[in-house]
TrEMBL record:
Name under which the protein is recorded: Nucleotide-binding universal stress UspA family protein
Any coiled-coil regions, as ranges: none
CDD domains with a match to the protein in the record: USP-like
Stretches assigned to the UspA domain: 1-146
Top-level taxon of origin: Bacteria
Family statement: Belongs to the universal stress protein A family.
Pfam families membership: Usp
Signal peptide extent: none
SUPFAM superfamilies: Adenine nucleotide alpha hydrolases-like (SSF52402)
Xref: InterPro entries: Rossmann-like_a/b/a_fold, Universal_stress_UspA, UspA
Length: 280
């Protein structure tokens, strides 16, 4: 059984991500944890100490969160009716990231599936701040679903790499799991700048190929393009249904997503994005 965490702020973007997860794992026995965290906007410890009545405000916010969670749970059961799926709701008076980190550990979560933006997301921002912080801090594969993306079978997975990591089982297992569900084809994209692979890169490439020996995969080497250009140009030629990257420090992933250009990177991601942590 897979354990899947679905954070929601009750926005349509988060509902869209929930729908995607339910469809992606429709043939798997899954337990979905529907999570909402709440902190009253004007909540301050000092204020509550002076005004105990403010605890009533916290109770009210909690009641609203729990009602909305139940509404989403009812909506899921009504629209999907999947006997393989069970839903548990979690309403937590906490900040989102610490709560997700705790649940991932306590519930042995296999995937976190969430929208790319929150309720206040704008089109100019590729990822909302919550999504970025989840990528950075959660030791679990995170699948981010673009706003408005309708589910499509992930037949073609794009996996850019610089062979800078020694691939372990947990790096490739999420890809293989999806591959087993849909017989996908994995496109490994290596962006070359005219230099031969180092000895370490050659070793890592061989390790990756060993992990994927039972899967269908193709290796593409593309020269003199940035990561953004390489991904965008590949997508223009091949109908890719999912982008996968490993969040490895000192790799092009970190340069691409965690530098100051996080909200202005050079391509618009229109497909689901699976981020796999380098370390668990």
């Amino acid at each position: 059984m897979k354990n899947i965490l679905l954070p929601t702020d009750f926005s349509e973007n988060s509902w869209n991500a929930i729908k995607y997860a339910l469809q992606l794992f429709k043939n798997e026995t899954c337990k979905f944890y529907l999570l909402n965290t709440y902190t009253p906007v004007i909540y301050h410890v000092e204020y509550v100490l002076v005004e105990p009545a403010q605890f009533g405000m916290i109770d009210n916010v909690r009641e609203i969160a729990l009602k909305n969670l139940e509404d989403f749970k009812t909506r899921i059961k009504s629209e999907f009716k999947n006997p393989k799926h069970t839903i548990e709701t979690i309403g937590a008076f906490n900040m989102l990231i610490p709560e997700i980190v705790e649940i991932v550990k306590d519930k042995a979560i296999d995937y976190v599936v969430m929208g790319t933006k929150g309720a206040t997301g704008t089109n100019e921002i590729l990822f909302g701040s919550n999504t970025v912080h989840v990528f950075k801090n959660v030791k679990c594969p995170v699948l981010a679903i673009p706003d408005g993306f309708e589910f499509e079978t992930p037949h073609e997975i794009l996996f850019p790499t610089d062979y800078a990591i020694t691939y372990e089982t947990h790096h490739v297992k999420p890809i293989i799991d999806i591959n087993k569900l849909y017989q996908t084809r994995i496109h490994i994209l290596y962006l070359t700048y005219g230099y031969d692979l180092s000895e370490k890169q050659e070793e890592n490439k061989l390790i990756l190929e060993t992990h994927l020996k039972k899967e269908t995969y193709l290796i593409h080497e593309v020269g003199n393009q940035t990561v953004e250009e390489g991904i965008t140009n590949f997508q223009s030629k091949t109908r890719v249904n999912m982008l996968v990257m490993i969040n490895n420090k000192h790799s092009f992933f970190e340069n691409l997503f965690f530098k100051n250009t996080i909200n202005q990177i050079g391509f618009h991601l229109k497909i689901p994005f699976l981020v796999i942590p380098a370390k668990l």
